[in-house]
Amino acid sequence: MKALKISSIVFVLVITGVLAFLMISAMKAPDTFMQDFRNETAKLAKNKDILSYPDELLEKKTSLDARLAMSDDDSIGIRISLKDKALYLEIQGIVLHKTPIKELKTSSFFKHLSAQERYVLFSRPLAIQKDESTIEKDTWIITYAPKDTIEAAARAEIIPDTILKEPVMYRLYLEHGIRIQVTGELADTVEQFWPRMKFEYGDRINFLKALAKNVTKKTPLPYNPTVSILIDAKEAEAIYRAVPKNGFVILEL
Questions:
Q1: Which of 238, 245, 208 is nearest to 19 (CA)?
Q2: Is residue 152 part of a domain?
Q3: Of 67, 79, 82, 152, which alpha carbon lies 20 to 30 A from 103's?
Q4: How far is 210 from 213, CA to CA, in rounded Å?
Q5: Total number of domains constituting the chain
Q6: Residue 145: what pLDDT?
Q7: Is 188 exposed, middle or buried (0-12, 13-18, 19+ CB in 10 A)?
Q8: What pLDDT digit, counting tens, does each position of 113-169 carry?
Q9: Residues in a beta bridge with 78
Q10: Is there a contact between 104 and 252 (Cβ–Cβ < 8 Å)?
Q11: In CATH, what number is assigned to the domain containing residue 76?
Q12: Domain limits at 60?
């Protein structure tokens, strides 16, 4: 019995030690990511042309250059302005739709970027590498013509249910490891609770798995600088389906 107690204590201490080690490693990941980024972009950020601009003008140039580059593409793209707290759908430089951002959170990585580093990162649109979502990307509705006027009249009396019952949440993984998380604002209901939990905690479990794998293999720790936004659920759904699978995103800090 005494041996069993000792074994249990040792087991708990080992698990606690492993978790503590993983937590410390996770806390170091943002600093490591920032240092690696600065090492890779040092030459570009010190370019004489870039340094010749005052920070305020360089920020405007960053946005203009990115929008100009995205205007060459003939598909719909996303522009997220953190200052305006707005998300824009654009095509060839024309704003198709503006959605207000109700809540906004960003990783500390973005706050520590200089104007020159922002130009290096965001002076062109970032391509979507992959996405994860609680909803389908494409939806197809097949409608058959009514057989006669009686059936047509019966259909006209049916009021479609336009209330979203499933949670609208998705992540867009961009170049440089940057991630955009979009959540549609909906009332908390039992129907939405488990899908939301699955989406949220599934991501955290995957992070812990990747962290453990990278620590044991001594490879760079996983870190995705993230911009999280909350917008209207219907608009979040429409935006996700409007943008191509490998579309482009402009970030304006």
A1: 208
A2: no
A3: 67
A4: 5
A5: 1
A6: 57
A7: exposed
A8: 999 999 999 999 999 999 999 998 875 444 555 565 555 445 444 444 445 567 899
A9: 89, 249
A10: no
A11: 2.40.440.10
A12: 2-138+164-252
